Amino acid sequence: MIPTRGYAATDPKTPLGPFDFKRRDPRPNDVLIEVLHCGVCHSDIHQARDEWGGSIFPMVPGHEVVGTVTSVGADVSRWRVGETVGVGVFVDSCRKCEACLAGEEQYCLEGMTVTYNGLERDGKTPTYGGYSERIVVDESYLLRIPDGIPLDGAAPLLCAGITTYSPIRHFGGDQARDAAVLGLGGLGHMGVKFLKAMGARVTVLSHSPGKQDDALRLGADDFVATADDDVFEKNAGRFDFILDTVSASHDYNAYLRLLRRDGTMVIVGLPDPSTLEPGALINKRRRLAGSVIGGIRETQEMLDFCAEHGIASDIETIRIQDVNEAYERTMRSDVRYRFVIDLASLREGEC
Question: Which fold has domain 161-290?
Fold first, then answer.
């Protein structure tokens, strides 16, 4: 067993703090990784505070992990010591169901093994995430970080990036003439970058007028403040595709009516349930869909796309000792647009 330091939530009410635990020794197909950077995802906060239920404590969060291979198991063929790799939202799956065989491990019929706050395939060993100095992962569930992407800016791509890239590709948003991104946060800012790189005319829809300058800086062609009284009437039937990244409750029906005939709105946030009026779909053969992350193959495709187009997440780098403040700031939307932990702070400083 490998002694490991990290930061953990010990219960839903206590701030995260130093935590010593043990990683397994690498099995024949495992890779040992020194963690360099780990993104702070909004879902880390929900799970550390048990806001979704089912949290497993103590919990070491973090599923946007970038690091360096420091050793490999005897049967590892894909990776070498010194390579830079990524670990995303899951670290294993059943490998035999229809979804896994199709390269869609995130939809594993037996359930994917999440990087933290889950159990390994034995059903009893807890998984611990990237707020730590090292992690051990099966070689089949690692990703290659291409040259040209800043390593800290690459970390959020492993969740925020693929969460937006996958539905754009799957539901044809990359073919849209006029696309909209609803919400400009950790997910939304990546949606703007991807859609723009794919050739769409991109509009940001936001209830916060103060985000207009940022939206245009990120590449958006237009900005619509949704708090304006007549905005939905003025923009009815305007868009081919809407990427809905908002995690707060909102009226799906109003936004669906911004789609033209055969348009698609894809939900990637997790708001509270909202009433859906069938007429918002039926009248113009619109579609409302959902999506969650992507498989290993598609996530690698996304990383390669980012390298080709010069895309990375907009980040603010923090020390791990400041993670609790980062949680509070994230809840206030006081970050542009993702916090990333520099794990050197764990190795070099006092915890």
Answer: Rossmann fold (3.40.50)
